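Checklist before submission:
- one chain only
- standard amino acids only
- sequence pasted in full

Submission:
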Amino acid sequence: MIELTRDEEFAVLTIRRPSALNALSFELIGQIGECIRQAAKTDARALIVTGEGEKSFCAGADIKELQQRKLAAQREGAELGQAVFAQLDRLPIPSVALVNGFAFGGGCELAMACTLRLALPNAKFGLPEVKLGLIPGYGGTQRLPRLVGVARAVELVMTGRTVAAEEALAIGLVNRIVQAPGMAAAKAYVREFSGHGLRALQFAREAVQRAMDVPLHEGLRMEADLSTLAYRTRDAEEGMQAFVEKRKAEFRDE
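Returned file contents:
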């Protein structure tokens, strides 16, 4: 099952299927989508995504469920996974994957779909689909090169090899390695930015994400548009006034 809970000012999405290393069935993917939609309706400052237990964040798709599927059903499954994970791009709050143990296949793709990624020292990442005669289908071939570059992404997808936490940090697949207890470390990390106004955070995310899809001149135009929108918010007025008055800003997400 997929569980959405509240931990202080954060929403926490937990994959609870430890008996199968938190592998994703299509039913669970649908539940993830519903939990993301629920999180968007709360006043949480961020969404933390993790897996139950110490062994696995998410070991990927449920391979037994993939066998003997007709082509149309397989296409629908890929589109479902892509659509659900893409909801994280539109989530009005940042999302952070807390990777504990294996993040393979669909699990790695889920982590990459989050705004940021944290890894415990035992974390291991990989897109091993090629070893099954397949390729990633939930966005892995598209998000991985945006994080680590084309050459590394091609190598990782073609070999299907496992990447340990230290290498993942070195190549930019994760933002930081944290120590146990992981949830405490994740909350401390998120608090480095969650106190800023959500509107500014959302505009910043959008500007950076769009940079990957358009030429520089168009990206600069969008940056100007978004920075102008940010300037019009009440949080911007408060932030600048607090700076002048040498006090901490009190943002209200307005």
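Reviewer check: The longest helix spans residues 71-90.
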